[in-house]
Amino acid sequence: MNDARPSATDPTPETPSTDEPNGPVAESASEAPSAPAAPAAPEEPTFADLDLPGVLQSAVDRLGFTRPSPIQSEAIPQLLAGRDVIGVAQTGTGKTAAFGLPMLTAVDPSERAAQALVLAPTRELAMQVAEAISTFAQDVDGLSVTSVYGGSPYGPQERALSRGTQVVVGTPGRVIDHLKRGNLHLETLRYLVLDEADEMLRMGFAEDVDEILSHAPQSKQVALFSATMPPAIQRVAEEHMSEPVRVSVSRQASTTTNVSQRFAVVPFRHKTGALARVLATSDAEAAIVFVRTRSAAEEVGTALVSRGVVAATISGDVPQKEREKIVERLREGSLQVLVATDVAARGLDVDKIGLVVNFDVPGEPEAYVHRIGRTGRAGRTGEALTFVAPHERRKLRAIEKTTRQTLQEISIPSPRDVSAHRTEKLLASVPERAERGRLDLYLEKVDAFLESSGMEPRMLAAVLAATAVGDDGPGAEAEGDEEFTGAHLKGSDRDRESDGKGRPAPGQPEKGFTSYRVSVGHSHGAKPAAIVGAITGEGGLNGKSIGKIDIFGSFSLVQIRGSLKDDQIDRIGHAKIAGRTLRISEDRGPRTGGRREHGSRRPDSREGGRHEGGRRFGGPRHEGGPRRDSCGHGGR
After folding, report:
1. Full-model pTM
2. Which helix (H) or strand (E) element contains residue 169?
3. Which domains can be identified in the chain, with CATH numbers?
4. Which of 56, 150, 171, 348 could form a disulfide with 52 if both were Cys (CB 3.0 to 4.6 A apart)?
5. pLDDT digits 0-9 by tens, 420-435
């Protein structure tokens, strides 16, 4: 980023000019008078100048926001004054804080009813906005934020709405569904936001937006944010807004010049293995891996830890104290990799981050700019690598067009590359270790082994090097080489891959794996991390032995490399998750008619994806098949 001014979209602390480290030097009496100085430029506003309530100002300070972005400095005062606002701004300019902070000042936490509604075109954006608003409101006692969107079960959303959540963020189709079901009432609505309004109307939600607005009181305050202002948006403004103030900012389209930007085409089911190999061959002191949602952050973080990577996860629901500890570990070097959502990474300023990996392609090009801005700081160089699924090249072109830079395509390191990299690092440390001495014991043992075995010294050195870097020879999996197809993947994205290859049905084992059934499911609170931990801990296995996990209502199916011995089955069977024993047994597959034994229903792979912890979910059924939005992203 060329703009050095910190804001909520680029919260890097301001850096004093290196030209005058101590500020302007006073003119000495002996020097000739110079020409009158030009008037000083007016100081740009800070968040402290916006008169936010103390609890929100504290949240802003905690997130590291110093100076508001242009859309924030213009929109926030108008919204705080109670005016309707039309904001013409791209994603990535800080508009979530521009409408979210004033929204929270209009909400009464003591009133258990829907008081604020944000409509977003896609479920990904709805989740991100809800996460951001929750982060802003962490210190507001009694305030609840709920996101509602298609492809997710109604039950949890209905329960959250019934408890009287004050802020609702959702896609138009699902909001209407809840209105019709009587789960959501808008009579108490005070504040309404249309986020990315032009995208909503382009996706065909015009009638849905009109219907939702018809349920809201006339006295509500409305904020409309849109990248463009086509006639349809102007009509919405004329019909539903009262004397709106219009603010407009230009898009940010620059990236840092000291960051090497590359991409690799990686089908989703191979992303975790590819990520492990990229990290294994990187010389960066620390890395950030960006994902779209908090559940994806947990899944990817768990996958890396199971591979021996020192990784941690932060998302909007991580408590501030824990977040501070994680960031401090990153700064001091005891943490290698941070897996983060866009919202959670705001305000993160760690100089030693040398690599940014976009595990998921950002939804908007501007978000890409902010992500890669986490590296290449303080005069250092950095690397940014984006994983692009075969069907996502259009998104890549949009990023290149916005940033006016061409990303270089690379190949993911192979297992051989990983071993070669580790061997080079091992050999580079040899001279220093030899100089430190105290090697008599090892020389004695090596001499004895060479004499008794007749092995060539060069062969012995090669074997020791292979052992040291974890290469166990043919037939063994190299680090990060296995196809990662289980609990750590989001089913919706995996199902949407356009590489033309099928995948096994739930419970059908991959080659070399055996499918086992454990007696805990999502109704017991089972999550993949807990299942993996119990099986590896009690069975003496490592994370690479665990493959695909399908979590059903009352049980789960786990693929394990090879077959378990009787004593392993006995130990694992007595392990407990959430107070319930696993009772593991080999799975005998589905009965005729598509029903598994004991009458348990298969997870629906046609809609949605994996919920938190890898649990599958499906959307509501309607005439003509499952209802889905365009490209499987949002809407109903």
Report:
1. 0.46
2. strand 167-170
3. 47-248 (3.40.50.300), 259-413 (3.40.50.300), 417-468 (no CATH), 491-632 (3.30.70.330)
4. 56
5. 999 999 999 999 999 9
